[in-house]
């Protein structure tokens, strides 16, 4: 008869206990907040470098393009490492999401402000980058599980939405922009000119009208249209050229393509400009000039550049120029303000 084999005693103290799986330790809110803070620093540095690269790229530097490509990738890697170190979860999706959100927000801000820098506290410090990096880092809470952290993530998302809404919200009561410093200085200069009384001269023709002042940076040159649409130019130069005083008046009656030299004499001008006592005049009667206490005054038929032919205007004829010469007067203050305020 075979011997009986005793059954094993499951209650024996020599048996090996079955190992149990411990419950996962809940994520510490403090460690998660530290991860968000470090991530915000990563985003802040990345946004600064990226904006600098964008500026370089605008001026043709291809190294800026490299920054736009490489920096976001590096930011994703660093944020993922930070999450792994402080939360035990690498969570690459969260790192990608907040990095993309930060760079999209940067683009939205740039096209909203259309200037670089956009807002700064002091030179070299861009406040917009802080206002983007911190809320984007807070949105990491949406991926970390705890309801407290999700509330923080919602706060970060809400801050981004509020920022975009503020940037693109229409001004409910836009105030007219005040004059710039340059405009204020220009207005002050004009008022000083009006007070000086050194006004241009015009031809006071029956039925004629003053149509403007030629803004060419030279001496005052006004345009008067006769009753028959002939255009006359009147010049007053209180500081005339002195290279050759004998022929200076003829310079003001000449055309630009006449090939005159300041070494010419009146004999060289004799075919078109002659002197009759104190008056210089064109031989065809279309121009007159004189010196008066060191000031040169001249009247001539307008050159084609100053004639609005489409409005029926033409260069004045000899009789019209002579009539204008005999009717010269200074502009009134009202005419100065009408024709020279924006000159």
List the helices and strands and how they pair.
Blueprint: H1 29-58, H2 63-87, H3 92-113, E1 120-122, E2 125-126, H4 127-138, H5 147-168, H6 181-196, E3 201-203, E4 209-213, E5 220-225, E6 230-237, H7 248-253, H8 266-269, E7 273-276, E8 279-282, E9 287-292, E10 295-301, E11 314-315, H9 318-325, E12 328-330, H10 333-340
Parallel strand pairs: 6-11
Antiparallel strand pairs: 1-2, 3-12, 4-5, 5-6, 6-10, 7-8, 8-9, 9-10
Helix pairs in contact: 1-2, 1-4, 2-3, 3-4, 3-5, 4-5
Features:
343 residues, alpha+beta, 2 domains, eight-stranded mixed beta sheet, two-stranded antiparallel ribbon, 10 helices, 12 strands, 15% strand
Order of helices and strands: HHHEEHHHEEEEHHEEEEEHEH
Mean pLDDT: 82
| Low-confidence residue ranges | 10-16, 18-25
- Taken together, the total number of domains comes to 2
Supply the helix-strand structural class.
Answer: alpha+beta
The major pleated sheet works out as: 8 strands, mixed
How is this structure best described in words?
By secondary structure, the protein is an alpha+beta fold. The protein has 2 domains: 29-168; 199-340, no CATH class. The protein is 45% helix and 15% strand. It is built from 10 helices and 12 strands. It has helices spanning 29-58, 63-87, 92-113, 127-138, 147-168, 181-196, 248-253, 266-269, 318-325, 333-340; strands at residues 120-122, 125-126, 201-203, 209-213, 220-225, 230-237, 273-276, 279-282, 287-292, 295-301, 314-315, 328-330. The strands form 3 sheets. Strands 4, 5, 6, 7, 8, 9, 10 and 11 form an 8-stranded mixed β-sheet that branches. It has a two-stranded antiparallel ribbon with strand order 1-2. A hairpin with a 6-residue loop joins β4 (209-213) and β5 (220-225). The protein is rod-shaped, with a radius of gyration of 42 Å. It starts with 28 loop residues before the first helix and ends with a helix. The model is unreliable at 10-16 and 18-25 (pLDDT under 50).
């Amino acid at each position: 008869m075979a011997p009986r084999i005793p059954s094993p005693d499951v209650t024996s103290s020599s048996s090996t206990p079955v190992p149990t799986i411990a419950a996962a330790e809940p994520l510490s809110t403090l460690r998660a907040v530290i991860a968000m803070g470090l991530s915000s620093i990563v985003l802040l540095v990345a946004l600064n470098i990226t904006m600098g690269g964008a500026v370089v790229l605008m001026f043709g530097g291809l190294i800026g393009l490299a920054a736009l490509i490489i920096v976001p990738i590096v930011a994703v890697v660093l944020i993922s490492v930070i999450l792994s170190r402080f939360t035990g979860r690498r969570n690459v999706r969260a790192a990608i999401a907040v990095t993309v959100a930060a760079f999209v927000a940067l683009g939205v801000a740039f096209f909203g402000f259309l200037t670089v820098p956009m807002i700064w506290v002091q030179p070299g410090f861009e406040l917009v980058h802080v206002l983007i990096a911190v809320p984007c880092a807070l949105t990491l809470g949406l991926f970390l599980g705890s309801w407290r952290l999700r509330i923080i993530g919602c706060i970060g998302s809400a801050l981004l939405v509020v920022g975009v809404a503020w940037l693109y919200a229409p001004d409910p009561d836009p105030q007219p922009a005040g004059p710039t410093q340059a405009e204020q200085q220009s207005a002050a200069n004009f008022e000083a000119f009006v007070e000086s009384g050194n006004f241009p001269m015009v031809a006071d023709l029956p039925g004629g009208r003053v149509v403007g002042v030629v803004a060419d940076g030279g001496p005052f040159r006004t345009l008067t249209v006769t009753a028959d649409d002939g255009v006359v130019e009147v010049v007053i130069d209180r500081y005339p050229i002195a290279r050759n005083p004998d022929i200076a008046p003829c310079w003001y009656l000449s055309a630009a393509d006449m090939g005159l030299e300041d070494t010419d004499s009146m004999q060289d001008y004799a075919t078109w400009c002659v002197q009759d006592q104190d008056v210089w005049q064109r031989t065809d009667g279309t121009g007159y000039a004189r010196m008066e206490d060191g000031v040169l005054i001249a009247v001539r038929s307008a050159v084609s550049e100053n004639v609005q032919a489409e409005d029926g205007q033409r260069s004045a004829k000899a009789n019209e120029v002579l009539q204008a010469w005999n009717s010269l007067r200074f502009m009134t203050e009202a005419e100065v303000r009408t024709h020279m305020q924006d000159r």
